[in-house]
Design goal:
The complex is a heterodimer of chains A (253) and B (255).
Chain A (H helix, E strand, L loop, with lengths): L6 H21 L13 H13 L4 H29 L3 H15 L7 H8 L3 H25 L3 H9 L4 H38 L5 H10 L3 H32 L2
Chain B lengths: L10 H22 L9 H6 L1 H6 L1 H33 L2 H15 L7 H8 L3 H25 L3 H9 L4 H38 L5 H10 L3 H31 L4
Classes of the chains: A mainly alpha (253), B mainly alpha (255).
Amino acid sequence: MRPKLQFGQRLIQLGVLIAILVAWWYFTLPGGINRLLLPPPAPVFSDFWVLLTTRSIWPDLLVTVHEWVVAVAIATVAGCTLGYLVSRSAYTVRVFDPLLAGLYSIPAILLFPLFLLFFGLGTGSKIAIGTTIAFFPVVLNTVAGLANVDKAYIRAAQSMGANDLQLFWSVMLPAAFPVVLTGLRLGCIIAFLAILGGETISSLAGLGHRIVSLAENMESSRMFANIIFAVLMAFVINGIVSFAEARGRRGFQ
Amino acid sequence: MNPRQGPWISAGFMRLIVIFVLLAIWEIGARLYADPLFLCPPSQAVAALPHIFGDPKVVNAIGVTIYELVTAFAISVVVGLAVGLAVGLHGFTKQAIMPVILMLYATPQAVILPLFVLSFGIGPEAKIAFGVSHGIFPVIVTTVAGVQNLRPHLLRAAHSMGASRWQVFTAIVFPHMIPSFFTGMRLGMTGVLLGVLLAELYVSTAGIGFYTRLFAESFSPPDLFALIAVLAAIAVTLNELCRMAERHFSRWNIG
């Protein structure tokens, strides 16, 4: 749990926030930074308001969310299944765990040109990159969670006559669940970042595509409004996923 | 060990067999079923390696990418360490600036990639800057965390014995933060790899991003697979170097 912040600390943080806004306003006064690179705050906020109140962003938002949901779903099912199979015996863990960890240290973004070739410019290549990037934390954490369950619990359940299914549902899953959840949280977040990155590199629709095309049209205040939107969305996703993780943890204890 | 869990083949050898079987499935599957315009068997990718390294422009592009990676990593570590120390050693700056840094760390930088291209152009500078934007935050955060649980009585003892600022830093602060600093370097390297490669793939005139695009668009998968394999090998090597440094230095932690 996070310790409660004191009033003075909050005040300092608020002061820093205001200082940043003032600096932004000051440096974008006429004669300051080029408006294409950093537009003044006022038009950015008015464009952000337009963005929130009109529905123009909906199609792109839906594309990105759709890609994210599909990628996370595939990565979760595949990662948990493979993780479960690998964790069945200590021997398979010793064989496959270093293999998966080694693959994880290859930057998955390198595969994006291949995915573009296989799945095209549309949603397919983003789902593929999101799935690939989310798969590894899920599978590695599933293996780590299931393989490190305290042996005493397992032996106790077996000696009391639990069958495989009972053992899994009542002992293995509750014991491994927090670790698996951490993997899922990581997977959800980096899948979103990878999908935004993929959309930035090349795509037909989505939030990343929208920002790039605004940048290429030199509409920098609308671009900044969209960037603020994407950043806020990343925070919201972060918050939702962390909340779900905390809830899931408590639900199983 | 339970004899049931230890078959006659060692785990390391079994791992090699698994890798070999997977490559064999890929090889046979690609030869029998795949469209040669999109997927090639691994043997052809290996055969394309001399072709890749025979082209001086491709070799040059790989060199440019390594240069970008190393420069971005060096800047991330030096600047990140300086900022981390400046922020972490004073209570006021930590309260004021740390939330901003954590917020920036959690920001999806991919969406501001066009801004980097607008300000730094399409050359290596934009890739280095984007790599730094990914790599610097882990270094700052771990540096701050490293100096955070510094024991106050050590500092007080040093001060009371008349140590100078520099002596305090070299004798107390630095040894204390070494393990977390190397963790930060490893995380920073992961970030730099992601940032530089992402920026390369987004827009590139001479780096590897240009050639991955060229090979993909000219439908020559052997070249593309070979180039990606070379880059993956570079990335894994850089990652492993950082991991080895981390393991080495976290051992002599004076706890």
